[in-house]
Amino acid sequence: xxxxxxxxxxxxxxxxxxxxxxxxxxxxxxxxxxxxxxxxxxxxxxxxxxxxxxxxxxxxxxxxxxxxxxxxxxxxxxxxxxxxxxxxxxxxxxxxxxxxxxxxxxxxxxxxxxxxxxxxxxxxxxxxxxxxxxxxxxxxxxxxxxxxxxxxxxxxxxxxxxxxxxxxxxxxxxxxxxxxxxxxxxxxxxxxxxxxxxxxxxxxxxxxxxxxxxxxxxxxxxxxxxxxxxxxxxxxxxxxxxxxxxxxxxxxxxxxxxxxxxxxxxxxxxxxxxxxxxxxxxxxxxxxxxxxxxxxxxxxxxxxxxxxxxxxxxxxxxxxxxxxxxxxxxxxxxxxxxxxxxxxxxxxx
Length: 349
What we know:
Blueprint: H1 2-18, H2 23-30, E1 45-52, E2 55-64, E3 71-75, E4 99-104, H3 122-136, E5 143-148, H4 150-162, E6 168-172, H5 178-192, H6 195-206, H7 213-228, H8 238-245, H9 249-255, E7 285-290, H10 297-306, E8 310-315, H11 322-325, H12 327-343
Parallel strand pairs: 3-4, 3-5, 5-6, 6-7, 7-8
Antiparallel strand pairs: 1-2, 2-4
Helix pairs in contact: 3-4, 6-7
EC number: 3.4.11.5
Protein name: Proline iminopeptidase
Keywords: Aminopeptidase, Hydrolase, Protease
């Protein structure tokens, strides 16, 4: 009888322990539960107040999911584009219970758009990201930034000042030097175009005839579909077309310039270069490069070794928007990075 009682107790204890929900199961079961959140009413959207030297404004954010240890703030490209560049993430992150935050920077379509060029500086954008982080309640136990293109510049600049607040950093499709990017565009990508086409494009740019329909036609036909998004124009995702439709050209041209062959003219980012400072970044860092990118993938591989805890993700089928034209490799690598950092299994390489 005593043996039978002990056996029943053991079985009961086994069932209690064995049926205890794992942490990852808890996250998954609560991932779409907004009932305890203050943004349930708006479906995750928050207009976050920010202060600037030129007054107070609001920026648009939308949080998808709940995960107490993985919260990824998405820094869009441009400058002056929108969060819509990242809508493909909806097809991958929710299934992995990864919380992510769409965000339109000040001046972009869904946020306030003050008409003051003095606001468009790296330093002010960094302070904006820090204010957004605080408003979202993120810290170094859960906070990641993922920046693509110009967003990669902003992500690097943020990490160089505020890495103490980061759990991980993802630099997607962005070199650490505008002069190096210009050199790659002019000496490598341009000459790969048919010579007659490249000569026409350079003539348009020399004459500053950027609004000429022929200039735009040549770029889309020969350059964009090779190095921006490797799909026929009529197959481009609606989210990308919508994003480009919503661009703020004032912010874009002021910081990036009117050309797609590098950062040119009197654009404020023309001389930007943080290559000498990368070695001061200590947080786990993923750098993403692609074979057909407008950015040199070899340079980005070098960046992954220059930071102290870096990993390189290569997208062999991707271009500048690898989150669309090489999703298999892009999302597999990003998700693995987030999982490894979260589990304490991150190894650089």
